[in-house]
Prior knowledge:
Blueprint: H1 5-15, E1 18-29, H2 39-55, E2 80-87, E3 92-99, E4 105-108, E5 137-138, H3 144-150, E6 154-158, E7 163-169, E8 175-192, E9 195-212, E10 224-227, H4 235-241, E11 248-253, E12 261-265, E13 267-269, E14 274-277, E15 286-287, E16 289-294, E17 297-298, E18 313-316, E19 323-326, H5 327-341, E20 346-350, E21 353-358, H6 362-365, E22 369-373, E23 378-381, E24 387-393, E25 396-401, E26 403-406, E27 410-413, H7 415-418, E28 421-426, E29 431-436, E30 444-446, H8 465-471, H9 473-491
Parallel strand pairs: 3-10, 4-9, 18-27, 19-26
Antiparallel strand pairs: 1-2, 1-8, 1-12, 2-3, 2-8, 4-10, 5-8, 6-7, 7-8, 8-9, 11-12, 11-28, 13-30, 14-29, 15-18, 16-17, 16-22, 19-27, 20-21, 21-25, 22-23, 24-25, 28-29
Helix pairs in contact: 1-9
Amino acid sequence: MRPFIPFILALLAVLVPVVYCVLLPLERAFPLTDHGLELHQLRARDRARHARILQGRVGGGGGVVDFSVQGTSDPYVVGLYFTKVKLGSPPKEFNVQIDTGSDILWVTCNSCSDCPQSSALGIQLNFFDSASSSSAALVRCSDPMCTSAQQNAATGCSSQSNQCSYIFQYGDGSGTSGFYVSDAMYFDMILGQSMIANSSATIFFGCSTSQSGDLTKPDKAVDGIFGFGQGELSVISQLSSRAITPKVFSHCLKGDGNGGGILVLGEILEPGIVYSPLVPSQPHYNLYLQSIAVNGQLLSIDPAAFATSNNRGTIVDSGTTLAYLVSEAYDPFVSSITAIVQQSATPTTSKGSQCYLVSTSVAEIFPLVSLNFAAGATMVLKPEDYLVHLGFSDGVAMWCIGFQRVQEGVTILGDLVLKDKILVYDLAHQQIGWTNYDCSLSVNVSITSGKEFLNAGQLSVSSSSRDMLFEMLPTSIIGLLMQILLLKQFRFW
């Protein structure tokens, strides 16, 4: 048996490579149709996030910049993407909205008296109690993390309690305040093609004691917001700075059916992914949008319309429901779409939005749209990526332009555009990659720079981490038996 040892070693190297990444199951909830929201209500919700995007650093009482948004309509379905995190000891599960437009993770505290007690999203709301967690610690004013927080949000300290606190005020009048906590976060860490380990790390997050405005409404209530920005207070930055996870995360948001998707702290690998550099020295995910093409024809748009400045540019933000185009781009965009489809669809308007009555599949008559970014990276939008289905008029389907016009400000690519795509946020190399993808399929993941350690078991969007463990169990058993065989050979060497 001695000659077979090199063969066994080589086989083990193939079967059991070491891969570290964190998988978070991502869910999408759909309220009942009688909870449908008008487009102006969706825009109001987006406005809260946009104020956070523009706000950057806020001191004292804080100030909010509001975006001018136009158009109203009533979409059939309101989508809200969120994921689950486990915090405290013993761990407690919280549903938090995934938001790449902010940095801080915060959840609702049990001491909050004006926070929603129920949610129309079909989830049970939970509340964090620092006194019930054996690993929780309040963040004092002298803590270096509190100093960092003061550079990124409206943070203050109580002279009586010596407690680091915060106040976030949003553009639609809603807001939240609370205090910072240090506690354990639990997650499933993939250690190889055949192993998932329960891991934990101490992180810094907010505990909300007060909420106002739309945050108090039960129709879209969740337990908090999971900020995936690139600031040093975001969870991805906290974990990667300690080499617990790589400095990259990825998501794939499923747009149809019951929704769902994949969110992973690691790099999703797919041959079709193209990358474009991030604009440097920006607090959010700004890209260099250079031009827009409809049906392969470049639109006549002044490139200055997309230039990045204090209050201009192009941002990728999963916390925004719709998508927004500056007027210099929006007008030629809509005009071009209308000119192409007017022979096959009937142009109309609905509550200020450009719509079309369509008697056939939109994929058959509406053109592809290309958003062209720096480094030759193109994001191809299918009709469903820029249209919203608003129901029927006299038995004919009505589809409306989902992009909203912004008189001046930031072009924002929200969930309307980001769905059904792999998005890779490579913070280590300051770039974002994407490709169109069926997010109901499994993916391969790498967490190393320049090396491809694949998860051959492939992360499944429809399986929990426990299901995945059972799916990969045969490979685990094979690996274990081979290791036992190898040890036995060494004993008799």
